[in-house]
Amino acid sequence: MSRPAAALGGEDDGVRREPGGDSQDSYVDSYEDVSVFSLSDEREQQLLSAQTECTFMWTNSAGEPVGVIMNFVMRDGRFWVTCTRRRKRVPAVIARPRVALAISSRGTDIGISQTVTYKGTAAVRDDDAAKAWFYPALAARVRPGDDAAQAAFCKHLDTDGRVIIEIEPDLRIGFDAEQMFKNSPAGRTASFVQTPGD
What we know:
By secondary structure, this protein is α+β, with helices and mostly antiparallel strands. It is 24% helix and 31% strand. Helix 3 (128-142) packs across helix 4 (147-157).
């Protein structure tokens, strides 16, 4: 999978360094090139372990982009999601298998605004071998620590009309806003908008 290179260095790297040269007081004050804020491999794996939802994207017959939120499992370097065959995304993916998915750290406890986007090729599967491991794996992610709930969830999934979409990624774009705003007077990004009275 190709990964965009990202590095900070040199006189034009956009890093503001306070007098004294203390790295704790340094921050980036130019956001023209956000590729320098790429998500590290370690934080990417942490994100994939902590998050259960992704935005799955494909194109319709008119070439227009469409996306929905779906639960996912990652296994063997591939992403796996599920829906019923009657969903419009299924014939769309069969006809145009190039897809994308995006994952954010929002809703997790690992930090704010870590994201990773993948482009890849999808295949629609309905074989028993895939269902046998995928349904329990998905249930364990979305109903953790509750065997009875996991069993009930698997039963809910196990219908004749359900399919699994397997996505093999070949390009990855990561972004880490915590690095972007580290030590910045602009502060951290809020995780939600407070409503009046909160």
